[in-house]
TrEMBL record:
GO terms for molecular function: DNA-binding transcription factor activity; sequence-specific DNA binding. It comes from the Bacteria. This is Helix-turn-helix domain-containing protein. Residues 165-262 form the HTH araC/xylS-type domain. It holds the Pfam family HTH_18. Keywords: DNA-binding, Repressor, Transcription, Transcription regulation.
Amino acid sequence: MSSIAITGLTTARDIDSISRPVSTFNATSVTKDWENARHQHRKAQLIYSVRGILNCEIDDGVWIVPPQCAIWIPGNLPHSARGAGETECYCLFVEPDAAPDLPKICCTISVSPLLRELLMKVAGMPELYPLGGAEDRLIAVLLDELVAAPVELLHLPMPRDLRLRRLTETMLADPTDKTSKADWATRIGLSERSMSRLLLQEVGMGFGRWRRQLHVILALQRLTKGESVQTVALELGYENASGFITMFRKAVGKPPARYLSDRMSGAELAPVPGIMLPD
């Protein structure tokens, strides 16, 4: 295992040159609110969050990684990453052909107790661990568990169309904006019907669902930093905490306090259903 001297999750070492199917790095001393600029590497990457919220951005979307979850980033995919609050995480770098059926797209996955223990065990192995022995067998089990890990739908897709991009970036900057869908369409030079059709084509969801997905992601970032549910609800434009809690419970299956408590303690690691609300 190597410890990273880091700002964010970068290292001066050439990850791609390590001649093993899997390499791990322990990033337990990351400072508050770090950011790692856009970069890429040949190997795929798994970032497991033990403590704190991680965010990963690529051209097509934003992924959030709550505690006891991980983000999978395929190889050669340009991405940036940042941490919200005090973070503790583990990084796993995987050769693209290390196992069949590894995810082909960026995704947030739920980390089971077994996968968590495997990650911790592998993190303690030497960088150039012996091939053909117990270490290899342990790596094989870890990869099997990684392939089987359920995906959590904590993903905010981003459109490529410049008009829609202007819409989504404006909403990201001011999530309390209660402008109606019709007014948003006029603002970006589209009819309401055309905007709805284009959103479905580009991000796979309608305006209302995208905005709720945005609110859950922003809420998790702020709640993890210690802000109260009441404060977060008001900052996101809800009239009271009750309406926000109802939205959050429908989105992820639990009220925010219970969701975060379970994630922090690792007591409940079953996958959450993601946001499946109608538009």
